[in-house]
Design goal:
The complex is a heterotrimer.
Chain A (H helix, E strand, L loop, with lengths): L4 E2 L5 H26 L4 H17 L10 H19 L7 E2 L6 H21 L4 H32 L4 H6 L6 H4 L1 H14 L23 H26 L10 H22 L5 H30 L1
Parallel strand pairs in A: 1-2
Helix pairs in contact in A: 1-2, 1-9, 1-10, 2-9, 3-4, 3-9, 4-5, 5-8, 5-11, 8-9, 8-11, 9-10
Chain B lengths: L2 H21 L3 H25 L5 H31 L13
Helix pairs in contact in B: 1-2, 2-3
Chain C lengths: L1 H12 L7 H21 L6 H21 L3 H25 L15 H21 L13 H13 L3 H22 L4 H5 L14
Helix pairs in contact in C: 2-3, 3-4
Classes of the chains: A mainly alpha, B mainly alpha, C mainly alpha.
C-alpha cells in the first residue's frame, strides 16, 4: 500500500451507493435474524426492508401540531449526510474522498453531529415520545463519547498521525487490534451506541414507543432508518483503517479487503447488537465512566509507553 | 481578503455577543452571548495567525480560548442548575442575592 | 480487474480538487458573514431550539473558516466541541427557561437599548482601531501544509508551551469535579445509604 490518493468529488456518488447497499444489507440481516428469532422463515425477514422501503416511498407525510418543520428537515437531511461525512476520510485501498490531515478528529466531530441530529429529530415533531428519545440519546452520549474519543486516540498515537491513511499505513504486518484490543472493544461499543439502534442506543427503542422515530413518516422515516444503518456501516468502515490494518491482506487488492473487512465487522456488530441486554442511560453512564473510560485510558497509556520505548 | 476584513468580522461577532450578554434575561442566553464573544476571539486569532505570526504561539492561544469556553460553560451550567434548584431562579435579575 | 480499475482512475478520475487558494479569501469572508448573521439571529428567534442551534451554526461557520486558514486541527475541534456544547445547552435551555417563548412569545430582553448602544459602541471602536493600526505582515509565506500546522501545535504544547498544558489540564479536572459537586442534587450516600451498598437506602431519587 503506498500513499493514499485523493479522488475527485464525483466519486462521492459511488461512496453513497456503497453505503446505501450496505445499509440495506444491515437492515436485511437484522430482519432475517428477527424473523428467525420469531420462528418465521429468515427470507421473509430479509425481504422486509425492501417492502418497507416501497411502503415508505408511497406513504404520505404525517405532520403534528406546531411541529418545527425546519429543524426536522435539518435532522432528516443530516441523517442522510452524516454517514457519508464519516466514510469520506476512510481510504478504500489507495483512494480516499478527502485526505484530511486530521481525519481521526473529523470522524469524532461527525459522531458528535449525531447527538445534534438525534435531538433535533426528537424536538422537531413537538411530540412527547420523540423528545424523550432525543433526551435519552444525549444521556447515553455522555457515557459513550469520552471512552470513544480516547479509543480513537490510541491508534493515532501509535501511528503518530491524525491522517487516516497514515494510521492504516502504520500497521504493516500487525493490525492495531492485536495489541490494542481494549481500544477496539471500546470503539465498537461507541459505534453501537451512536448508531441509534439496539440496546446501547435506545433513542428509537420500543420501550418509549420507538422514540425519535415515533412521528416520522414517509421519506423522512426512510432517510432516518437508512441513515442509522449507514452510521453503523460507517463506524465499521472507519475501524478498518484504524484497527484492522486497512487494505492490507493476501491475494485480494486493497480496496476489496477494505470492503470485506467492513462487511464482516458490520455483520458481527449487527449480530452482537441483538444479544446485548438493554441498558438504562444511568446504568450505562456508570459503566461508561467507571469501566470504559478507565479501560480506554489504560490502553492509551500502554500504547504511549510502547511508542516511547520503540522510538 | 485582508487581515482587516477578518478582524472586522470578528469584531462584529464580538459585539453581537456583547449585546446578547448584556441584554438577555435568562442565564443560559447570557452564556450564549459570552460564547459568541469568544467565537469572535477565535476568528480573530486565526486571522492573526494566517496574516502575521509564523510561530505556533497563536495556535496555543486558540487552544486556551477553547479551554476557557469549556470551563465557562461547565461552571455556568452548574451554577445555573444550583440556582434553579435552590430558588427556582432562571433569570439574572432573580439572582440578585449573589451580590450580597 | 484491479489493474483496469487503476488505469481508469489514473486517466480520467484522479483529477485533484480545484486549488482553493484563490477561493480562500471569498470562502473565509463568506463564512465570517454567515457566522455573524447566525450569531445575531440567536437573539432574534423565539424558539429555544432554534436559538441554540443557530449559535451552533455560527460556531461551525467559524470552525470552517479556521480550517480554510489551514488550522485544520483547531477548526475541526471547534466544530466538535461546539456541537457537543450546544447539544447539551439545548437541554439546559429547555430545563431552566421558565417559559417557552415558542408557545408564548415575549421579550426576553432587559435594558435592551443600553445593551444595543454598548454593543454598537464596541463595534465602532474596534473597527476604527482595526482600520487605523498598521498591522505587521508575516515575513514568510503562509503555510501550505495543514499537517505541519497540526504538528507544530503539538510540538509547541509539549515543548515550549508546556506550562499552558500543565495549567489547562488541572483546571479542566477541577471543572469536572466542581461542576458535578455543584450540580448534583442527590449524592451517592443519599442514594445508596451510608455504607454505599444500597442496603440501607433512605429514600432519595434513583
Amino acid at each position: 500500500m503506498g500513499e493514499v490518493v485523493q479522488v475527485a468529488a464525483p466519486w462521492v456518488l459511488l461512496a453513497a451507493l456503497l453505503l446505501g447497499m450496505a445499509a440495506l444489507g444491515v437492515a436485511a440481516l437484522d430482519g432475517a435474524l428477527a424473523a428467525r428469532a420469531a420462528c418465521r422463515p429468515a427470507s421473509v425477514g430479509a425481504q422486509h426492508p425492501l417492502v418497507e422501503t416501497a411502503r415508505l416511498l408511497r406513504q404520505r407525510r404525517r405532520t403534528t401540531v406546531a411541529a418545527d418543520t425546519l429543524l426536522r428537515h435539518v435532522a432528516v437531511g443530516g441523517f442522510a449526510v452524516a454517514p457519508l461525512l464519516m466514510v469520506a476520510v476512510v481510504p478504500l485501498g489507495e483512494w480516499v474522498l478527502a485526505d484530511a490531515s486530521v481525519g481521526v478528529v473529523w470522524f469524532n466531530a461527525v459522531d458528535v453531529l449525531v447527538w445534534v441530529l438525534v435531538w433535533l429529530a426528537g424536538w422537531g415533531p413537538n411530540a412527547a415520545w420523540s423528545l424523550t428519545g432525543g433526551y435519552r440519546f444525549l444521556a447515553q452520549a455522555m457515557a459513550y463519547e469520552l471512552p470513544l474519543m480516547f479509543a480513537l486516540t490510541a491508534p493515532a498515537v501509535a501511528a503518530g498521525s491524525l491522517r487516516v491513511g497514515d494510521v492504516a499505513g502504520g500497521q504493516q504486518g500487525l493490525p492495531y487490534v492485536v495489541w490494542m484490543p481494549v481500544a477496539f472493544l471500546v470503539y465498537c461499543v461507541g459505534v453501537l451506541a451512536f448508531s441509534v439502534r439496539g440496546p446501547l442506543s435506545p433513542a428509537g427503542g420500543p420501550v418509549i414507543s420507538s422514540g425519535v422515530l415515533a412521528e416520522l413518516s414517509g421519506v423522512d422515516r426512510l432517510l432516518v432508518l437508512a441513515g442509522r444503518a449507514g452510521l453503523l456501516v460507517a463506524g465499521a468502515a472507519f475501524a478498518v483503517p484504524l484497527f484492522l490494518g486497512g487494505g492490507s491482506g493476501p491475494l485480494l487488492p486493497g480496496w476489496l479487503w477494505v470492503l470485506v473487512k467492513t462487511a464482516l465487522l458490520t455483520a458481527a456488530l449487527v449480530v452482537v447488537r441483538r444479544r446485548l441486554p438493554d441498558v438504562r442511560p444511568e446504568r450505562f453512564l456508570a459503566l461508561g465512566w467507571t469501566v470504559l473510560l478507565p479501560a480506554a485510558l489504560l490502553q492509551l497509556l500502554v500504547v504511549s509507553v510502547v511508542v516511547v520505548v520503540r522510538s | 481578503m485582508t487581515l482587516e476584513v477578518v478582524l472586522v468580522l470578528a469584531a462584529a461577532l464580538f459585539s453581537v455577543g456583547l449585546y446578547g450578554a448584556l441584554s438577555q434575561q435568562v442565564v443560559v442566553m447570557v452564556m450564549m452571548g459570552l460564547e459568541l464573544m469568544l467565537n469572535g476571539v477565535v476568528l480573530a486569532a486565526a486571522g492573526f495567525w494566517w496574516f502575521t505570526a509564523p510561530d505556533p504561539s497563536l495556535q496555543v492561544l486558540l487552544v486556551v480560548v477553547l479551554a476557557a469556553m469549556t470551563v465557562e460553560m461547565a461552571m455556568g451550567f452548574a451554577v445555573a442548575l444550583l440556582l434553579h434548584r435552590t430558588s427556582g431562579a432562571d433569570m439574572t435579575d432573580m439572582a440578585a442575592e449573589l451580590k450580597q | 480487474m484491479s489493474l483496469a480499475f487503476n488505469e481508469l482512475s489514473s486517466v480520467v478520475l484522479e483529477t485533484p480538487l480545484p486549488d482553493l487558494s484563490v477561493l480562500r479569501g471569498v470562502a473565509v469572508t463568506a463564512l465570517g458573514v454567515v457566522a455573524v448573521v447566525t450569531g445575531a439571529l440567536v437573539f432574534r428567534v423565539d424558539s429555544m431550539a432554534r436559538a441554540t442551534y443557530l449559535l451552533a451554526a455560527s460556531f461551525v461557520a467559524v470552525g470552517a473558516a479556521v480550517v480554510a486558514l489551514h488550522l485544520d486541527y483547531v477548526g475541526v475541534v471547534v466544530v466538535l466541541m461546539m456541537l457537543m456544547e450546544m447539544a447539551v445547552m439545548g437541554v439546559f435551555m429547555v430545563m431552566l427557561m421558565g417559559m417557552n417563548p415558542a408557545l408564548m412569545p415575549m421579550s426576553m430582553v432587559h435594558s435592551g437599548r443600553r445593551a444595543l448602544a454598548a454593543a454598537g459602541t464596541s463595534f465602532v471602536v474596534l473597527t476604527v482601531g482595526i482600520l487605523l493600526v498598521d498591522w505587521p505582515t508575516r515575513p514568510d509565506a503562509p503555510p501550505s501544509d495543514p499537517g505541519a500546522t497540526t504538528y507544530s501545535l503539538g510540538d509547541a504544547l509539549m515543548g515550549d508551551h508546556m506550562l499552558v498544558m500543565m495549567v489547562v489540564s488541572p483546571v479542566m479536572l477541577a471543572t469536572i469535579v466542581a461542576g458535578v459537586v455543584l450540580a448534583q442534587a442527590h449524592g451517592r450516600y443519599e442514594r445508596l445509604g451510608d455504607d454505599l451498598r444500597g442496603t440501607s437506602r433512605q429514600g432519595g431519587r434513583r
